[in-house]
């Protein structure tokens, strides 16, 4: 999956706030502020009720209508947002932002060709910037048009004022198995944005894929210096040590981060894997980390699968099957999940560890990718 498109709705709301609003619209402004606060708190249903109420009001200024559309976008009511944006004059807040807003909604609806059509037409009119060509490139990539995606994303990094263009282009290159180019582009991004942790993490990940573990470790170390509590940087640094077979070092990195208050499901999962690699007899300690991982993120397929593997080892067949069924619902295509479900059914009432272990492949507890 291409790198997440950052919460553009939030950033544009800042721009919207710079526009003057008639005094009589103060009530609507306050209501939009309440809706924005509800969305930030994860209370989307209540936010939409508030937005629907605001929408029925007459006399809203064009800029408030635009802001209303962005909040509907944050609430994932993209079709409603599109209707509002199209009803707003093109000059509000400016032609490029309005067209980009509509295109972004179509993108989030999975309507990639419409996204391309809107942004391409805007580009012909000279309405474009790095953000727009970046979205255009991602839309092309979603349709499998690699060359057009590459060209658009490359154009985006030439004009980029943030790192997203570089990150998307690195991801695209990796998806099309051009790791050498991906590394070069990440290096260009680091030269342009030397204090961005994501670029170091991405370059490190590419180097890991190319088995350049020393170089990858250096990149992850740089990311950690920039962001000592960043879960992605910590996980990546520990994973490099794990890949090297340095399980004690991986465990040390993870334990240190957890002790410093870093809360992340994947850190506990990888610590469980490391514990088992150090000593397979430490299943209780590994189980404790897996329980914590699942407590933090109930949708962690990796943690559910590894916990099921340990449950099978001790003959806890029903608990294992329950974890695997949960994992299957979350990721129906996961081969380790399907394999272990089949195996757990095959062994029936046999719960002796020796019989259970023979069902599991050595990599059952690994990420399914």
Query: What's the overall average pLDDT, rounded?
Result: 82
- Beta-strand fraction estimate: under 5%
**Given the helix and strand composition, which structural class is it?**
mainly alpha
Helix content: over 70%
> How many individual helices?
21
Query: Could you name the ranges where pLDDT drops below 50 across 5 or more consecutive residues?
Result: 1-25, 346-369
**Major sheet: size, sense and barrel closure?**
none
Helix-strand topology string: HHHHHHHHHHHHHHHHHHHHH
> What is the 3D form?
globular
User: If you compute it from the alpha carbons, what radius of gyration comes out, rounded to the nearest whole angstrom?
Assistant: 24 Å
Compute the number of strand runs: 0
Question: Span from first to last CA?
Answer: 12 Å
Describe this structure in words.
Helix content is 73%, strand content 0%. Mean pLDDT is 82; it is low at 1-25 and 346-369. By secondary structure, it is mainly alpha-helical.
């Amino acid at each position: 999956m291409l790198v997440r498109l950052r919460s553009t709705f939030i950033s544009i709301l800042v721009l919207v706030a710079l526009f003057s609003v008639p005094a009589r619209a103060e009530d609507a402004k306050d209501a939009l502020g309440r809706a924005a606060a509800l969305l930030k708190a994860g209370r989307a249903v209540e936010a939409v009720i508030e937005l629907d109420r605001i929408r029925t009001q007459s006399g809203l200024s064009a800029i408030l209508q635009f802001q209303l559309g962005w909040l509907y976008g944050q609430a994932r009511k993209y079709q409603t947002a599109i209707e509002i944006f199209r009803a707003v004059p093109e000059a509000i807040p400016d032609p490029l932002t309005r067209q980009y807003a509509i295109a972004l909604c179509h993108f989030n609806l999975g309507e990639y060709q419409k996204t391309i059509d809107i942004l391409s037409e805007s580009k012909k009119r000279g309405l474009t910037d790095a953000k727009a060509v970046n979205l255009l490139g991602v839309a092309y990539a979603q349709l499998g048009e690699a060359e057009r995606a590459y060209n658009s994303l490359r154009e985006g990094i030439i004009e980029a004022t943030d790192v997203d263009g570089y990150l998307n282009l690195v991801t695209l290159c990796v998806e099309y198995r051009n790791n050498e180019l991906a590394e070069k582009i990440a290096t260009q991004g680091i030269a342009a944005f030397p204090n961005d942790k994501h670029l170091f993490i991405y370059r490190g990940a590419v180097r890991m894929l190319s088995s350049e573990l020393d170089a990858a470790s250096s990149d992850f170390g740089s990311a950690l210096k920039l962001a000592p509590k960043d879960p992605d940087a910590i996980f990546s640094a520990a994973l490099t040590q794990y890949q090297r077979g340095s399980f004690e070092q991986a465990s040390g990195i993870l334990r240190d981060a957890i002790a410093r208050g870093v809360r992340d499901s994947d850190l506990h999962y990888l610590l469980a894997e490391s514990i088992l690699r150090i000593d397979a007899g430490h299943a209780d300690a590994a189980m404790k980390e897996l329980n914590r991982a699942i407590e933090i993120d109930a949708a962690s397929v990796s943690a559910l699968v590894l916990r099921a593997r340990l449950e099978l080892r001790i003959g806890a067949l029903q608990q294992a099957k329950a974890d695997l069924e949960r994992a299957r619902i979350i990721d129906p295509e996961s081969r380790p999940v399907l394999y272990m479900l089949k195996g757990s059914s095959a062994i029936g009432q046999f719960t002796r560890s020796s019989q259970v272990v023979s069902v599991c492949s050595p990599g059952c507890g690994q990420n399914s990718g």
